[in-house]
Each structure stands twice: as structure tokens, then as C-alpha cells.
Automatic annotation (TrEMBL):
Pfam families: SLATT_6
Domain SMODS and SLOG-associating 2TM effector intervals: 1-176
Organism whose genome encodes this protein: Chryseobacterium paridis
Transmembrane helix among keywords: yes
Signal peptide span: none
InterPro entries the UniProt entry points to: SLATT_6 (IPR041119)
Protein name, UniProt field: SLATT domain-containing protein
Record's keyword terms, sorted: Membrane, Transmembrane, Transmembrane helix
Length: 198
């Protein structure tokens, strides 16, 4: 393998490993923090609804808070695995750091020979594939995008793989939701104008 190909391969694998680490940490955070935040916000909404009975959409707001509270019960199925998410996140972060170090070592090597790096690279791969947690918490992928690109040092990956904001840093499903929201807003505006001019 040539140096250029190896660096690109390391960056791609670094992305996979680092994103995996952040996805596990995202699941860990969602399980531990979201129920408390939902409880706190529900309490505030309840107090505001008692104090101001005539606020608009009062009933709808109550229904929304109830649905969110019910959806939090989904997280209970993950409570017994919360430590596994944290341990896997730490393990993958260590592998990410090894991959990054190997990348910079290979990049600065003027007498590059793949055989010199092959054993360490194969060990990183073996460690990476040795353990995975397949079932992650809902929405952990969106949160992992944020944690990966904005909390982790990923500039070397972004530069090597030519990652861009809209194409790579926003989750695909979030893009679809944004597009649907824009279509709904445009449709609402058109409908509003058409009914006003009749």
C-alpha cells in the first residue's frame, strides 16, 4: 500500500472508530441525562400552566409533555447496559488515539514502507472489531455527529477525507427532516396566501 492510500485508509478507519466512540458516549449521555432534563422541563411547564391558564396551546403542550414522558420509558430498557456504553466509548477513544498517532507517524515518514506499519494497523483493526454494541439508543447518531465533529479533535480526518459541513457533518436523516420542514413551511405560506385572496 502506498503512503497516500494508507493515510486515507487510516483517516477513514479513524472516522469509524471515533464516531463509534462518540455514539456510545451519546447513548450513555442520553440514558443518564435526558430523563432528568425532561423531568425538569415538565415541572417548569406544569408550573407555568398552573400560573397562566389562558396561554395558547395549553392542552397541546400538556399532551406533548405526556408523550415525551412516555417516550422516556423507552430508555429504561437500556439502563442495565449504561456502563457498557461508557466502557466501549473509552475503549474506542483509546483506539482512535492510536489511529491518530499512527496517521501522524506515517504522514511524517519520508521513507514510508507499509510493512513497517502493517502490524500496528492490523492490531487496531482487530481491537476495533473485537467488541461492538449494536443496539444504540434512539437519536444517539444525531448526538454523536455533534460530539464527534465539535468535541473531538478531527481536523486530520476532515482534511484527509475532504469532509464538508452539509455533506458529512449533518446526519442524513436530519437533512431529510430539514427539507420536509422547509417544504411544509412553503406549502403553508402558499396555502395561506391562496386562502386570503379568495
Amino acid at each position: 500500500m502506498q503512503k497516500k492510500e494508507f493515510l486515507k485508509t487510516l483517516a477513514q478507519k479513524g472516522y469509524d472508530i471515533g464516531f463509534g466512540a462518540k455514539k456510545n458516549f451519546s447513548s450513555f449521555d442520553i440514558i443518564n441525562k435526558l430523563p432528568s432534563w425532561v423531568g425538569f422541563i415538565s415541572l417548569i411547564v406544569g408550573i407555568v400552566q398552573i400560573a397562566y391558564k389562558d396561554i395558547p396551546f395549553n392542552k397541546e403542550l400538556s399532551i406533548l409533555v405526556i408523550f415525551v414522558g412516555i417516550s422516556i420509558m423507552y430508555l429504561e430498557t437500556f439502563k442495565n447496559r449504561v456502563e457498557n456504553f461508557e466502557k466501549e466509548g473509552v475503549r474506542l477513544t483509546e483506539l482512535f488515539n492510536k489511529t491518530r498517532d499512527l496517521y501522524f507517524e506515517a504522514k511524517s515518514d519520508n521513507n514510508f514502507s507499509y510493512s513497517f506499519y502493517d502490524v500496528r494497523y492490523q492490531q487496531i483493526l482487530a481491537d476495533f472489531y473485537s467488541n461492538t454494541i449494536g443496539k444504540q439508543v434512539f437519536m444517539s447518531q444525531w448526538y454523536a455527529h455533534f460530539k464527534f465533529f465539535y468535541e473531538m479533535q478531527t481536523k486530520w480526518i476532515e482534511e484527509e477525507l475532504n469532509l464538508t459541513f452539509f455533506k458529512d457533518k449533518l446526519p442524513g436523516s436530519l437533512k431529510v427532516i430539514f427539507i420536509l420542514i422547509i417544504i411544509l413551511i412553503i406549502a403553508s405560506i402558499i396555502y395561506g396566501y391562496s386562502t386570503n385572496f379568495r
